[in-house]
Amino acid sequence: MSSSQAEDFTLGMEEEYFLVDPVTRALRGDSDAVIAQARETVEDQADHELQLSQLESVTPVCRTLGEVRSHLSRLRRELASAAEAEGSRLVASGTHPFSHWDEDRVTPKPAYLALEQDYQQVAREQLVCGSHVHVGISDPEIAVHVMNRMRPWLWPILALSANSPFWLGADTGYASFRTEVWTRWPMAGIPERFESRAEYDDVLDTLLAAGAIDDPARIYWDVRLSARFPTVELRVTDVSLTVDQAVMVAGLCRALARTCHAEAVRGEPEPRPRHELLRAAKWRAARYGLGADLIDVAGRRSVPAKDLVGDLLAWVRPALDEDGDWDEVSALVEDTIAGGNGAARQRQAFTRAGRLEDVVDLAIVSAT
Q1: Which residues in the chain show pLDDT less than 70?
Q2: Closest Cα to residue 105, out of 84, 127, 89?
Q3: Which distant-in-sequence residues (6+ apart) come within 8 Å of 250 by Cβ?
């Protein structure tokens, strides 16, 4: 990506998936073979992840939601086809419903082995799949203030995307248990507010000098500035059950970034919510998804999830209109509220016959 003005509000998306055995539906650690097969068609848009049962897709830079949809559909289809060719199936779920982390192994590549060496059990138990959305922001100073302003509004997006209710064979009671597993990393979670890009860089330099991290890429905040691209990277969502829901997430993230960018450029006062309130709002979204009241950080109150999602949509509507995304994104949000997020649909699949294998089947990505 270049740092030109033309790159403002571009989109890129990374998705993580599991590989499973088609008969038992248990995790299958054959990502090496599947990635090698997939790269015959998608080249470097497929890559390894922390565990051998996982892999990642990376879209090219996109300028429209139509491009995002096209690339996500293509990548899911090609990776699912590669998985089938190697005797596996591709699964889009934030957690595996029943496989245990000790049945898997960390991918034997230097970066991942170093993570395991440093973080030990925390790394070994990271059997979770998320999605990351990159939004192009060319001005590094403005990007910091966009990041600051986004923090109160990440949680309705998390609630919409929640897709990980099961863990180690049990219903966790959470809509996004992936969120709870992920927060074990010491550099994960909600970032503090930064006064400037200089302060942001100083914090990273301090962490490097103190030996807390050895690479800026090990900052796993829910929203951060990409270490490689001129983007703000949102890292708060589970991998989506469907392409529709992934497109919804991408559209909301870009609209949120565009809205916050406009406020920063106009010099509007920046919100300064208490970190404790942000943490509570995040936890509530992970725990309940769309199924209960969520915390309206700006209003310092609890409101029904549907109302908070509606407030988000209303706030970012000018940005959605500017990108021509309002009709599509608002319809996808309404569909998710009416039909359930991934977590609700996983629970529905389990309730029908009481079989966690059926939950896996729901999340298997089609190769056609």
Answers
A1: 1-6
A2: 127
A3: 11, 13, 65, 68, 133
Whole-angstrom Cα distance, residue 19 to residue 34?
Answer: 9
Closest residue by Cα to residue 58 from 133, 1, 161: 133
Are β-strands 231-238 and 130-136 bridged in parallel, bridged antiparallel, or unpaired?
A: antiparallel
How many residues can be counted in the chain?
A: 368
Say which CATH topology domain 5-363 has. Creatine Kinase; Chain A, domain 2 (3.30.590)
Dihedrals phi, psi of 238, to nearest 5 degrees: -65, 160
Contacts of 86 (CB under 8 A, 6+ apart): 30, 33, 34, 37
**Residues whose CB falls within 8 Å of the CB of residue 163, separated by 6 or more in sequence, listed in order:** 92, 93, 94, 176, 178, 238, 239, 240, 241, 245, 341, 342, 343, 346, 363
* R_g of the chain computed on alpha carbons: 19
Look up tokens 């400037």; give the residue: 196
Residue found under tokens 């080249």: 43
**The token pair that represents 127 in the structure block:** 């059997």
Q: Which two tokens stand for residue 52?
A: 């051998």
State the SS3 of the chain. Answer: CCCCHHHCCCEEEEEEEEEECCCCCCECCCHHHHHHHHHHHHHHHEEECCECCEEEEECCCECCHHHHHHHHHHHHHHHHHHHHHCCCEEECCCECCCCCHHHCCECCCHHHHHHHHHHCHHHHCCCECEEEEEEECCCHHHHHHHHHHHHHHHHHHHHHHCCECEECCEECCCCEHHHHHHCCCCCEECCCCCCCHHHHHHHHHHHHHCCCCCCHHHCEECEEECCCCCEEEEEEEECCCCHHHHHHHHHHHHHHHHHHHHHHHHCCCCCCCCHHHHHHHHHHHHHHCCCCEEEECCCCEEEEHHHHHHHHHHHHHHHHHHCCCHHHHHHHHHHHHHHCCHHHHHHHHHHHHCCHHHHHHHHECCCC
pLDDT of residue 1: 35
Nearest residue to 236 via CA among 299, 282, 201, 199? 282
Domain ranges of the chain: 5-363
Contact 246, 237 (CB under 8 A): no
Type of residue found at 219: I
